[in-house]
């Protein structure tokens, strides 16, 4: 059984990124355990003085991620980058090795997040993660992965979006089986 951890770069309750992850959880294929992390927004501000003896919640965050075979990460764009809260959660991981040599699926869910996507890809690369291009599709105005004012079930039932979500799981499964 492979383990995939989903991480949303948004703290908003109505986040389309979090909706996407919840929809992906509903159609997770057999042989893959998919969990969405709830910890990124709960972490204290990063302090390098605490890296060797981090707060308990940071230790839990690191342990959770160590169990993953692949990360599925989605993020909105704020001021041409990722949110400060999300960046903070990643800062706690820079030198601890959770991303080292692990594949990362990095779908770009909005046609307007190219700058954040590049920012996030650079951070993941610095942490030693391997962004899988095959698992990192980019949305466009004609090729959407989420829609506003829609539920998870409506998203996975949508005639144009559902095949894209299924294809993403097929691609993720291929990466996991080839590792």
TrEMBL record:
Task: Give a GO molecular function annotation for the protein.
Answer: oxidoreductase activity
NADPH-dependent FMN reductase-like domain: from which residue to which, for each copy?
3-132
Q: Which cofactor does it need?
A: FMN
Q: Which GO terms describe its cellular component?
A: cytosol
Record key words, sorted? Flavoprotein, FMN
The protein, known as: FMN reductase
């Amino acid at each position: 059984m492979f383990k995939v951890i989903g991480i949303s770069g948004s703290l908003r309750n109505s986040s389309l990124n979090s909706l996407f992850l919840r929809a992906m959880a509903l159609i997770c294929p057999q042989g893959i355990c998919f969990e969405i992390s709830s910890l990124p927004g709960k972490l204290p501000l990063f302090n390098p003085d605490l890296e060797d003896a981090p707060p308990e919640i940071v230790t839990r965050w690191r342990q959770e991620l160590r169990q993953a075979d692949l990360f599925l990460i989605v993020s909105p764009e704020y001021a041409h980058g990722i949110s400060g809260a999300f960046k903070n959660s990643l800062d706690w991981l820079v030198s601890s090795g959770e991303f080292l040599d692990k594949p990362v699926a990095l779908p770009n869910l909005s046609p307007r997040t190219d700058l954040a996507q590049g920012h996030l890809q650079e951070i993941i690369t610095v942490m030693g993660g391997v962004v899988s291009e095959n698992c990192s599709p980019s949305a466009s105005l004609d090729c959407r992965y989420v829609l506003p004012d829609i539920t998870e079930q409506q998203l996975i039932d949508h005639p144009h979006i559902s095949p894209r979500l299924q294809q993403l799981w097929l691609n993720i499964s291929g990466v996991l089986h080839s590792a």
